[in-house]
Specification:
The chain is of the alpha/beta class and 453 residues long. 29% of the residues lie in helices and 24% in strands. It contains 11 helices and 26 strands. The chain starts with 29 loop residues before the first strand and ends with a helix. Bound molecules: flavin-adenine dinucleotide (FAD).
């Protein structure tokens, strides 16, 4: 029996080498590992068998399917192969190119190019991860099978879901997928980021940009306020008579004092924050006229950015791992779903206690989850993990603040642990903010190299 009293994973089936698992995937959606690599590994297995008559060619290892090739999923797929090269790991991802959200606010503000946010899965394929570039459309946990949009079926011993977020369309009247094509959320996907940037570029000087920030829980809690800062930076340098209004569904937000200080110091008179108590809750959106209505006011925006309330990516519902909150309860030791055995959920979709929904958290969870899967498949108990998350917010090109946290499971939930949450100092010399901006860039380069490079 595994930890938690669940049934052990099925023993590895004797099938062909991992390199041949592609035969189960349609040629359109699968990247085979190179023939040379396959021959090399086959030859290595053969020579091992010759060297020791007692050793036979390695049987194919257990199958792990990972759905979602973002900071959580891609990292987990890679960590699984690194931890145990016998594992047959398939990464299911609906896009050929991944567009990272961290630093995307700088793209919106014209400080970076979209291409700097984009990554492919070539390196994962070279590391022996089988790619299935299609959407997962059906999951059958009792049968341990995933169906892809092209009809391909993938069997697994363990399934990892890292689908990120989905939006609660129409939770704000008039804000649905069609409306998002006119009034972007810019919280997921390349087109949305590019659309918001184009709208800012083409707006007249003197107009108002309205950013609507969502209720928690949501992806990257400081991101709407970072966005307000960088949009203010864009306006200050290109359209100085324009301003930014943040309509908030909350009364307070993370690192609030640091943000408010920066608004005063960097963008005096340009950023106005309207809390929920002051009437900031967005009630409806008329996307055609860019009119945003609260219970008290109407805002006619030159550019409107509505970040709607969120839930786990839809595939979580398909797998039956999301609860009534829309998010996925997991065992913090293994990230195994509390609702479906053999299915693990990591990243933004998971309920991970005090951990924020960040790329940094998704990346640490991915590694813990991979180690736990390897342990569970070997009939061992997963080790108690310590996880970290660091989140930088860029408030101007040379001005950043951060929040770093360490977390451990306590009573079945991730809780802040020593040294606790460390936030940038409120009073700091400009050099400190400049150094944090450099650190933010280095963090992004490092994490994306670790996941995709
Ligand atoms: C503006 C902004 C700024 C941010 N800044 C930071 C920051 O500074 N630091 C930080 O740590 N975090 C930041 N984040 C948060 C970070 O981007 C997310 O927390 C992180 O991407 C979560 O990783 P994930 O793997 O859970 O989801 P994602 O990275 O969203 O990956 C999910 C993947 O799953 C795929 N997928 C979904 N459903 C399916 C399906 N059915 N079939 C196949 N594929 C599917 C998607 O295509 C996607 O590639 C920011 C977010 C935003 C929006």
């Amino acid at each position: 029996m595994e930890a938690g009293g669940r049934r052990s994973a099925r023993p590895p089936r004797r099938t062909r080498d991992a390199a041949m698992t592609c035969t189960r995937i349609s040629p359109r959606t699968c990247t085979r590992i190179s023939r040379r690599r396959f021959l090399t590994s086959t030859m290595a297995a053969a020579s091992a068998a010759i060297a020791s008559p007692a050793v036979h060619a390695q049987p194919a290892g257990p199958r792990v399917v990972v759905i979602g090739g973002g900071f959580g999923g891609a990292s987990c797929a890679r960590a699984l192969r690194e931890a145990d090269a016998r594992l047959r790991v398939t990464l299911v991802e609906q896009s050929r190119t991944y567009t990272a959200s961290p630093m995307s606010n700088a793209v919106i503000a014209g400080l970076r190019e979209l291409a700097q946010q984009q990554f492919t899965y070539d390196r994962l394929a070279r590391d022996g991860v089988t790619l299935a570039l299609a959407a997962a459309t059906k999951i059958d946990p009792p049968a341990r099978a995933v169906t892809l949009a092209d009809g391909t079926s993938l069997a697994y011993e363990r399934l990892v879901l890292s689908p990120g977020i989905d939006f609660r369309w129409n939770a704000i009247a008039g804000y649905d997928e069609a409306a998002a094509a006119l009034v972007p959320h810019a919280y997921r996907g390349a087109e949305q980021i590019a659309l918001l940037r184009r709208q800012l570029e083409s707006m007249e000087d003197g107009g108002t940009v309205v950013v609507a920030a969502p209720v928690n829980p949501a992806r990257c809690p400081p991101a709407p306020y970072e966005r307000a800062c960088l949009i203010a930076h864009y306006l200050k340098t290109r359209k100085p008579r324009a301003k930014v209004i943040v309509l908030d569904a909350k009364d307070s937000f993370t690192m609030q004092k640091l943000f408010e200080n920066a608004w005063k110091e960097l963008y005096p008179g340009m950023v106005e924050w309207v809390s929920v108590s002051a009437g900031g809750a967005l009630a409806s959106v008329d996307a055609k006229t860019r009119t945003l209505s609260t219970d008290f006011d109407k805002y006619e925006a030159a550019v409107a950015n509505v970040i709607p309330p969120q839930k786990a990516g839809r595939v979580a519902e398909l797998a039956g791992v999301a609860d009534r909150t829309g998010w996925c309860p997991v065992d913090p030791m293994t990230f195994e779903s509390k609702l479906q055995p053999n299915v693990h959920v990591i990243g933004d979709a998971a309920i991970a206690g005090a951990m924020p929904r960040s790329a940094s958290a998704a990346n640490s969870q991915a590694k813990i989850c991979a180690a736990a899967i390897v342990a569970l498949l070997a009939g061992r108990t997963a080790q108690a993990p310590t996880l970290t998350s660091s989140c930088f917010s860029l408030l101007a090109p040379d001005y950043a603040i951060s929040q770093r946290g360490t977390y451990r499971p306590v009573d079945g939930q991730y809780t802040e642990s020593d040294p606790g949450i460390v936030v940038s100092p409120l009073a700091a010399a400009r050099d400190v903010r400049i150094a944090e901006a450099r650190e933010a860039a280095a963090w992004f380069a490092d994490i994306t190299a670790g996941v995709f490079g």
